Amino acid sequence: MKFIMITTWWGHWDNIRGDSTYYSTTMVPSKIKKEEILKLQNVETLFIKIPSDKDFITGCWTGKTTNFREEMQSGKPIIRFDVIIGLRASFPTQYQDLKSGWYCEDWQSSPAVVEDKSFDPPFFDILNTTTDHKHFETHAYRLLKVLGLHTLYKFPMQDQSGKSDGFFVFKSLAVIFDMTLRKDFEQAKKVQMENYCGQLKNGMIEIIKGGKKREFNVGSNARQVWIITNGSSREIRTIDGITIKEVPIKNIMELYRKRIQDDLDEADFEKKLLAL
Hints:
Layout: E1 2-7, E2 20-24, H1 34-37, E3 43-49, E4 59-73, E5 76-88, E6 101-105, H2 123-129, H3 133-147, E7 151-154, E8 166-170, E9 173-179, H4 185-188, H5 190-202, E10 204-209, E11 212-217, E12 222-229, E13 234-239, E14 242-248, H6 249-261, H7 266-275
Parallel strand pairs: 1-3, 9-12, 12-14
Antiparallel strand pairs: 1-6, 2-5, 3-4, 4-5, 7-8, 8-9, 10-11, 13-14
Helix pairs in contact: 2-3, 3-6
């Protein structure tokens, strides 16, 4: 197995302060579970440096990464690791189209564990198979409810043109969420996502329910926008410190099962939410 790590960051890779750096948990290679990465040691790694405004390579080194651990950085979950730089290397042309990120080759995962789905609500099957966006939105909201998010609000479908699907707060985390089955949502919802960030940046979310208005001051919260899909986990962009993330419905289901089967206190649950 080999990692390919590409970045534009200053000092990388041959002049890293303390020989330690990190990636956001959203950049963990999709073929590897985060829990498996945390067990790895001395992984062969190709380190590549590119300038932020160019496509050419400014440096390439062989080496290893080790001592992977999960930490928080500015309120966001990260995977920190130690870097062991080896020799400068010529750049392999097969990687010339890769952008800044964390990639993996030849990963052999540990044997699959059969998930215990005995506590799954019946609507999980609908979420996994539906192509109807209304069904997906309805049942995704139900999933958030059974997950244990009590300060959770869903906006009426008839009032949603250009608006988000809902909003929730859990401890220090405030999230505006939008559910979609569209594959092109990043372009189709570009303006909407920017508007969601603007609402969170203002620090005040207004909810009207049953004719009564309630305001939430979220200025000091960790604020995120979730686009809930049946796709893959990734960080789309950050606007004014507010992260827009694609959150797969399957990852929320896995967190539900973990809450049912494991002993997660509120602090642990909050960390899991931040890392989705």
